[in-house]
## 1
Amino acid sequence: MITSISARVERREQVTPVHVLLRVHAPEIAADAQPGQFVHLRASEAYDPLLRRPFSVMRTEAATGALDLLIQVVGRGSRLVADAVTGATFDLLGPLGVGFPLPPPGTPVSLVAGGVGVAPLIFLAEALSSAASPYEITGLFGARTAEFLCCWTEFAGRCTRFTAVTEDGSTGQQGLVTDFLAQHLAAQASRRVLPTVYACGPLPMLAAVAHLCSEHEVTAFVSLERWMGCGVGACLGCVVPSARAEGPRYVRVCKDGPVFLAGDLDWQAMPE
Amino acid sequence: MSVDLSVNLGGLLLANPVMVASGTFGYGTEYADLVDLSSLGALVTKAVTLESREGNPPPRICETPAGMLNAIGLQNPGLEAFVADKLPTLAAPGVPVIVNVAGASLEEYVAVAERLSAHASVAALELNISCPNVAEGGMHYGVCPQSTRDLVAAVRSVSRLPLIVKLSPNVTAIQPIAQAAVEAGADVLSVTNTLLGMAIDVERQCPVLANVTGGLSGPAIRPVAVRLVWEVFRAVRVPIIGLGGIMTARDALEFILAGATAVAVGTASFVNPRTVGEVLCGLRAYCEESGVTRLADLVGAAHPS
Ligand SMILES: Cc1cc2nc3c(=O)[nH]c(=O)nc-3n(C[C@H](O)[C@H](O)[C@H](O)COP(=O)(O)OP(=O)(O)OC[C@H]3O[C@@H](n4cnc5c(N)ncnc54)[C@H](O)[C@@H]3O)c2cc1C
Ligand SMILES: Cc1cc2nc3c(=O)[nH]c(=O)nc-3n(C[C@H](O)[C@H](O)[C@H](O)COP(=O)(O)O)c2cc1C
Ligand code: FES
């Protein structure tokens, strides 16, 4: 069930110069949220910026009703959210969208994060590592520089095996995270059970993940970002092109996603 | 003190005057967790066309100062799928369903209107002759009195439902078009649809929307919409549905005082899904505080008598 609540900021932590971890009190949403789902947050009561901003749920604590969001400052809305002081309140709608489906027990999983896309994957890694029969988790986390490898210890701590990748080599391996996914998939090719891949990050990264996984015939789920109006499926503003023969040509990131089976999307027609 | 909030829209009776605007409330179900659907004055659907339409390629929306641009492009499943899949779940008991109708030709409008008129759960039709976002979205009908007259008359001849005509703000003079629609048989006028606009991404040096232009909505357009309602009220004697940037009860009152019998909440539902309910409460409170027993008495009250 989607609820609309006024959520109080309980803790604010400046994780890097451009990332803030916000803990808000949102019991109704925290109780229901699944990894990959998001909240639609009203950054200001003023009319400018007018529209809500979507942010992934990074962690929930059902017992206390806490919900964690990882905010990267990229513009006015995210700046307003990141600058919130303890005690401030935000209007939140959630949980929204379709999250990551968990793989059958025994399936090895590979989590591929790009930048702030790590947020929903931390939540997923937590669910996978605390499952009744825990999964073998390979974590790959890429970013421009060490600074953007935000919250990497929390991510790495849930993984069986973890590789950090930066474009400038300032931390971990140097290169693109998808180069390391390619190596990883090649090494897995002879296994009896192929891994399932989960990815969240910038669109070019997701397109590369989709391409690699289709080459290796590996199932991949990707979480997309689009500008949103309503966030609940009503306005048809957040769509991306579908590759499925049945159903509409354009599907809604907020309602049909944000998590999609990579093969269900038309990557050729994907807007920037 | 009890306040009578009911209104009569050309034969269509609403328990209260606060409706939701076409294209901003999906098919109702999307907001079922958040809004008491039975409290809506009426529910207006996304535009329905004869065949399914895939809509425009993305990006389809973009935020602007106190507003947004959209170029959805009339994405909808088409008439038959609408009737089979959407219509049955649309209606909350007692809440009239108004279907927004669009088409690329006069024949298409007539076909859709005729089929919907046979359906008991459709309370009224709203002809969208004002969509700015598709080459054949009807706006060319809504910017010329003669083509407005022809289209409305053709639909009138196949439907006995209350007929609402939704006017375009993208005209030099709205009064001749409003008069043409009424003379051809419109029972109610909706004022207004979105204002044609565009935004350019200065980094990439290209339009933000794939469709290049889009329709501007939200509080930024309210003064324009209020002015249009004012002008239409002076030109015709049928009820008006006022919309464009309503965020609060006071905004809705501006429209009512300018001449709107009912109001519709659009973009505001994205910002705050509770807006419809808050506007209704605020209207009631305003009437109580100012000793008004029938909201209908306020319609057009700002005009010199
Ligand atoms: C489902 C979902 C989950 C998300 N989760 C997170 C998260 O956990 N943490 C986080 O920091 N961010 C997340 N985002 C992205 C976040 O919503 C945007 O960064 C934010 O809305 C930007 O608002 P702004 O006002 O700061 O930027 P604006 O001033 O609106 O824009 C700044 C720049 O970012 C671009 N931009 C803005 N919004 C988007 C968007 N939605 N997609 C692509 N480009 C955009 C603009 O073109 C511009 O260049 C998520 C987005 C979605 C759709
Ligand atoms: C995303 C979106 C989709 C819309 N779709 C339709 C539509 O299908 N038919 C129609 O007549 N108007 C449509 N409109 C226009 C609204 O019904 C309304 O006239 C306009 O947005 C002004 O009101 P507002 O400022 O309160 O949103 C749409 C508006 C938006 C924002
Ligand atoms: S944001 Fe409105 S449909 Fe997705």
## 2
Amino acid sequence: MGELTRREILKAFLGMAALQTISCDRKATLPEGKLVDLTLLEQGHRIRDGLQIEPTKRQPVSVVIVGCGVAGLVAGWTLRQAGFEDFLLLELDSTVGGTARSGRNSFISYPWGAHYVPVPRKENADLIEFLQQIGVVEGKDETGEPIVAEQYLCRDPEERVFYKGHWYEGLYLSVAASQEDLAEWNRFHQEIDYWVEWRDARGRRAFDIPLENSSDDPEVTKLDRISMREYLAHKGFKSARLLWYIEYGCRDDYGLKLDTTSAWAGLFYFASRMKRAGEDAQQLMAWPAGNGYLVDRLYSKVSDKVWLNSAAVTIIPTEAYVDIDVLRDGREAIGLRAQRAIFAAPQFLRKYVLRTPVEQRFLEAFEYGSWMVANLTLRDRPYSLGFPLAWDNVLYESPSLGYVVATHQALMDYGPTVFTYYYPVIEDNPRQARQKMLSIGWQEWVEIVLADLKRAHRNIAQLTERIDVMRWGHAMILPRPGFIWSKERQLAKQPIGRVHFAASDLSGVALFEEAFYQGRRAAREVLVALGIV
Amino acid sequence: MNRPYVLFLNVLIIATCGLIYELLAGTVASYVLGDSVTHFSLVIGLYLSALGVGSWLSKYIEAGLASKFVEVELGVALLGGFSAPALFFAFAHLKYFQVVLFLLVFAVGVLVGLEIPLLMRILKDDLEFKDLISKILSFDYLGALFASILFPIVLVPRLGLIRTSLLFGLLNALVGLWATYLLEPRIGGVILLRLRAGLVIVLLVIGLIKANSLTSLAEEQFYIDNIIYARTTPYQRIVVTQGKNSFSLFLNEHLQFSSADEYRYHEALVHPAIAVHGSPSRVMILGGGDGLALREVLKYSSVKEVVLVDLDPGMTSLSAKLPLLAKLNGDAYSDPRVRVVNQDAMIWLEQANDGRFDIAIVDFPDPSSFSLGKLYTTRFYKLLKARLTDNAAVAVQATSPLFARTAYWCIVRTLEAAGFFVRPYQTAVPSFGVWGFVLGKLQPFDIPTSLQLELKYLDEETLKTMFVFPRDMQAVEVEVNRLDNQILVRYYESEWRKWEN
Ligand SMILES: Cc1cc2nc3c(=O)[nH]c(=O)nc-3n(C[C@H](O)[C@H](O)[C@H](O)COP(=O)(O)OP(=O)(O)OC[C@H]3O[C@@H](n4cnc5c(N)ncnc54)[C@H](O)[C@@H]3O)c2cc1C
């Protein structure tokens, strides 16, 4: 990289401030590492570019599930739970988990995407049942709320934020907050409390998980027509640190800014995670592998049914069956003929894979954000000033989201560790964001990551032994204004002939709970259609 | 200035340096070995006799007096300059510290003994004999006076022993270099000699720089007593200090024990648990790398195996090898019943499949950080429970119920919340203050009333009184400490902060 372009790249991704810390130090040697997204990208492109295969014969199987992300695995497990065994799961990649997958090195597992789930409220019985089965939930308290095993709750300290050379406890920057700041902070919580307590005529909450259970009363759904920024401005919120805090939530959960997040989605983030007004938000559950832990447990329930390296290239629903052409290991063409299929991959892929006369152009409404995730293997904990290392470590002045520490939940407090660093590439136009992210390769991303973290950890580069980089082109569905309560989202959930749809993007927010819900819903649809339940 | 007079200034410096080395050796010895009278008088005697040996040997030096003189200077600079670091090193790593001490004192003495006779012979033609001898000797004794005043008043308190030693070595080497100019006409191969002097100076300067990374001046000020061992392991800073009659161990600046009264603490920690069990065979000690709880445990012949789990190999090996510590823990680490595991105790409890234990002695540093706080959580105690036999007893060090009352009761309640039946107790350990422990079992139990052994501190009367809590230490309302709230670290921090101000 030439000096000029290097500076330009750092400026484009980190802003002017970062240039000051890096300008005079050119690190001669970069750590080891590689891009881990190349095969995935290539597979995706082959399908997009209209790959055609011609299997010679067709194997019969009752149900085929396409995609082994959380939604697909949950769908498979749901079938099995119902005593139904004649099904297959296809996964184009060599590992399962999709955006909730994890990696592992010699001493610890670490996430490649999703890394936490808030403790479900008692109403989410399906999810609680699963968590109980795998030992994450140990029982119920006297009010019926689930009790999560201590080791799976995020260990204190959960978060810290770096601001002007110093780390502080918590995510909200409370140091030197003015009276007005604190007053707005309280008022914002009252605002959330209002929505937490709000019920419609049928007793439904304004914001619930799964999202499907939320009220469709216009008082709430109209919030989907404006942006979070408009909502906050309308309510008179001005405190810079409050707005930063709320925007951090939007960036973290959706990869959007205040201007581009639907106010409905923005409030959903806060209000769906609380039982009652005035209480703390639901605690977080976290694992070294992130949600990869849950993926592994789900996978163990259906692994005998999973075909890895097996891409569904075409899906053709007909009156009597559904044909699926599978490319296995990049060369073998296999035909499947199923009674039903569950498409548990994101909706944007439908136009390449699903051959149907049904008009699917409405799927253009599904837009996705781009995320770069880097896993840094460190020889030792880096220097840091102020509040000690937490699970989630956020840089106030950075466009990144900071990093989570894989060893935190493994109770490993000394020596080597892995930091998982998140950078949502946000542009008004999601396509541009994707191009921007993919326009630079491993080395450039490594320089960005190190320059960003160096502001808080002066010796980070010396301690980093390895950085692997994942560029998620379609990381998360974007709940921009109008999408959650759109016709398009409703339509997309409808089965097309014998094909049912399951991925989390159908919910409009990229959450484990939603993937779980959608996978289960689709599997139940299939069980009903097959006359099993 | 007249050349001979400048040389007398040399004598003054040399003499000061010589005495400084002697004082250093005596002080280091009395620091690390404690017994100051014996070691001081041995060091002085040996040093003076070595001076004699040096003087006597001087007659064997025939030619090249001036360059020999410079070489001797450089030798003294190196040996004397590095004497204190070398002695500390020997103390920490070698069994036979005294041998090194006496050899070093003797060698420095011999070299210093050579200096004056050589100088006198060099100057014999410049001055009348009576003048020469009166001047040299008076500067020599004046130097001794300087040293003896500077040493206790300025050098030790301001610089510490290691820096003093290196600094005077440097001074010595500079005198050597200076002498190559003063005596230039009489020296052959002067360039080479200056190069050697330069090398010695560089070495000593490096030593001075390194000395700061060993212990900083600020750190030395922090401790009331003298630091005799200091090391930063990947896990913590270990410092051993020596006072008049006792020595102390500090981890990250927190006092772990003082040899004067640690027996009170360790007897209170270990024996009540063993008493309620009766005859334990397998014992685990979590933390306690100093080996002192181990010493108490090993007193029981029923004990067949002790697994000691301490995070820091730097700590356990120090306790096994530092003669001072090994003596205090009765060489506990060489007992064949002992097995050491260097791992985070919580991860060990989670992972190791090491059977069940009759006794668990839980002796961690106070919960002053989140990584220590996790060792006092319900999760930790539940993991511990899974490793115990039905009749097992545990004893947990639980900070001070007086200074950190909430923190203490938080530990008690957390053990209860994890399913232990508990008996809180406390005792006085002067160097700590009032100290608290918790005895726990998996079923309800009565407090122990009898002891199997005769001990230094505990007897049956005292044992009973430990379970009585005066009013200012009685239970308070607390939350239970969990991994996801780490409330104990917050209690502890706020309470100790009050006392520190
Ligand atoms: C960086 C990042 C961080 C996140 N953090 C969180 C978090 O902290 N908490 C949280 O709850 N959620 C988080 N999410 C969102 C979370 O990952 C998703 O909500 C959820 O895991 C999505 O599951 P899914 O099954 O719907 O889809 P995906 O994970 O997208 O799974 C789809 C699967 O289908 C496969 N596939 C696609 N096409 C084909 C084909 N033609 N043939 C065969 N297989 C195919 C894919 O390879 C993939 O494995 C995060 C997402 C990202 C990207």
